[in-house]
Amino acid sequence: MKKQIKNIAAFIFLFTPTIAIAAELPKTNSEGDYIGKTGHPFWQVITSDTNGLSCRMGDMSIDDIVSPSSPPLNINNLPVVTNLEKNQIIEASPIPAGFVLKYDVNKKPWLFITESNCFVPANSQYVKPVNK
Fold first, then answer.
1. Displacement of CA 101 from its chain's centroid (Å)
2. CA torsion, points 114, 117, 121, 126, in degrees to nearest 10?
3. How far apart (Å, rounded) are the C-alpha atoms in residues 126 and 56?
4. Is there a contact between 97 and 109 (Cβ–Cβ < 8 Å)?
5. Lesser CB count within 10 Å: N end or C end of the chain?
6. Which of these, 128, 121, 100, lies nearest to 54 by C-alpha position?
7. What's the DSSP call for residue 30?
8. Roughly how many angstroms between the first and final C-alpha of the chain, as a whole number?
9. Which among 48, 35, 10, 19 is positioned nearest to 129, based on CA atoms?
């Protein structure tokens, strides 16, 4: 009897159609800022600026910036270290809390971009979440 149940279970597992469920993409508020506790890593640069999207970083390490003891920064005033190309797919790194959004002194969200080691605004004018 146990063997029959195992065979039936194996049959159901093997021949039941798999339904792919796409992860829900982060949402924006009325100002176009991506909000909430998201761990979504992949984003596409969609800026209308022909020079690309400014990516900012100061003279500190990311560990210093995301440390719970560090004060909020005015990320918009940090120097531009690189420009990311329009349509480029970028990967945001989670901060220690496991979320990719970092809020500045103005309570605006930013994404820390792993490969460029800098921040971009988490706003629908500049980036959009994508499944990769």
1. 7
2. -70
3. 14
4. no
5. N
6. 121
7. T
8. 45
9. 35
CA separation for the pair 101, 40 (Å, rounded) = 9
What would the two tokens of residue 78 be? 């940090």
Digit-coded pLDDT (tens) for 39-85: 889 999 999 999 999 999 988 887 777 777 888 889 999 999 999 99
**What pTM was computed for the model?**
0.77
pLDDT tens profile 11-42? 343 444 433 345 588 999 999 999 888 888 99
Residue 57, number of CB atoms within 10 A of its CB? 20
Q: How far apart are CA 86 and CA 75, in angstroms?
A: 21
Residue 96: count of CB within 10 angstroms of its CB: 10
